[in-house]
Design goal:
Layout (H helix, E strand, L loop, with lengths): L1 H13 L1 H6 L11 E4 L6 E7 L2 E8 L10 E9 L4 E8 L4 E11 L2 E8 L2 E10 L1 H5 L7
Antiparallel strand pairs: 1-2, 1-8, 2-3, 3-4, 4-5, 5-6, 6-7, 7-8
């Protein structure tokens, strides 16, 4: 009996990647973790908080002064649209913009920022937790 319960837990969501691979309903697990736009770019950790998911810069070789800045705010999953919605803080422009995020695969994230009448699309790759653990990450 215990084995059946453990097996059910494992298959139905005990591990986020397993749930994603089975194409079960998307949960926070699809977006949680470490993300990087490109080589040498800042690493953003998306975490769950009481009011939604938030993304914080935890490492940056090029701009270490940005570590600790919250760049994704109030991310919430819209089941009907199949995507995440929230706000992103633009360090360059010093303002927030609305964003939509899609996670088409377990290791890729596509962010669309809405700036007035324009849209800017940016792709991120997941940094495996084991690889992130080896980096000098700031804890906040």
């Amino acid at each position: 009996m215990l084995f059946a319960l453990l097996a059910g837990w494992f298959i139905l969501g005990g591990l986020p990647r397993a749930a994603y691979a089975l194409d079960l309903p998307k949960t926070d697990a699809t977006i949680l973790g470490y993300w990087q736009r490109g080589e040498g770019e800042a690493i953003i950790q998306v975490r769950r908080q009481a009011d939604g998911c938030h993304g914080i810069i935890v490492a940056s070789e090029r701009r270490p002064e940005t570590v600790g800045i919250e760049v994704f705010r109030d991310l919430r999953f819209d089941e009907e649209a199949g995507s995440w919605h929230g706000r992103a803080y633009s360090i360059k422009r010093k303002r927030e913009v609305p964003i939509d995020i899609e996670v088409p695969e377990a290791d890729s994230l596509e962010l669309t920022a809405h700036i007035l009448i324009f849209k800017k699309r940016v792709k991120f790759k997941r940094i495996p937790d084991a690889q992130a653990a080896g980096l000098q990450l700031a804890e906040r």
